[in-house]
Amino acid sequence: MLDYHIHTLPNGIRIVHKQVLHTKIAHSGFIMDIGSRDELPQEQGLAHFWEHMAFKGTQKRKSFHILNRLESVGGELNAYTTKEKVCFYSSVLDKHFEKSFELLTDITFHSIFPEKEIEKERGVILEEMSMYLDTPEEAIVDEFDAVVYEGHPLGNNILGTKESVASFKKQNFRDFINRNLSTDALVFCSVSNLPFEKVVKLAEKYLSDIPRIHKPLDRVPFVSYQPKTITTEKSISQAHCVIGCPAYALGDDRRIPLFMLNNLLGGPGMNSRLNLAVREKHGLVYTIDSNYATYVDTGLLTIYFGTEKKQLKRTTSLVLKELKKLREKPLGSLQLHTAKEQLMGQLAMAEESNMGLMMMIGKSILDQEKVESLNDIFDQIRSITADDLITIANDVLHEDKLSFLNYVPA
Description:
- The chain is of the alpha+beta class.
- It is built from 15 helices and eleven strands.
- A hairpin with a 4-residue loop joins strand 4 (76-81) and strand 5.
- Helix 9 (255-266) packs across helix 15 and helix 11 packs across helix 15 (386-396).
- The protein is globular and about 60 Å long.
- The protein starts with a strand and ends with a strand.
């Protein structure tokens, strides 16, 4: 069973900790229920820009002192932004845990967004955009969000636009944080060999002066979807394609069966159906995979591949053929058993990473108010039937529901 402890401070901040005795590394971070979907139209890219600016100065530290604080003792300090989360996190030797806790608190709650640093980081982010636009296999996946979620904040690129990034001032960051930061909707999560009591004591030391802020999430739900097919010519040497459609939300009971179906279709295993049918049998692609992402009110299932321009139609046809098999041909008992064992093994290996475990625990508390143990998830997987998968395949993967985005060489 997943053994973790949780403590809620008077200001609403939850401290979540799992003690792992056999490690010398302490992983920890603040995970907040704030993401790019919480931006106003003129704020596109602001959450991600904030992630960068948190390292650029606080009320008592300049940028160099922030970056050097943990690096000088062999630790790491990092951050990420998604559609629904912003996270600042670190990894250090256990004896430096307090140092990392204090620094994470400082950059999360006391950043000052110096104008000179905003100007410098603006250039960095514009370069990040250019780098990403030069990588079609990444750009097409992000652009596909805009195809499916057209007109909705989930369709906006996390990096923002060149125009929006060029416009941000210090006050924009303050306004965004003041509007979205809620102590009830953030957690400090840690995985280390330290006892829970010590983590709580440090939390009380460094977080007690943070005032309680209660702001209920006010997210626009996604309700309108129209399938589309879009083909764009680009200066590239290979055709790229994403096929997909909306899927089940985070709290849907059909989420686990769909994860299993996605794993069978195009998961990380070399024995996925798409890899066997398109790469191994016909040699048409180097990479082909599928992915299922969940949000609080919707989800997204996508299939990506790159191929020669002249093979785009044939490769797409082979993908659709595999989807049809999933809709029409139930798994045999051995196939079903193998699919379950593969997914359970992958999930167990993912939990071997203490950093990944720390992230998973924190996000689960925010999204579901609990952390499901592997045994609970395994029980759900074992209960899945072949009929369940057929029903879900027909509901989600029906050809009439699919959108297509193609990049082709000009």
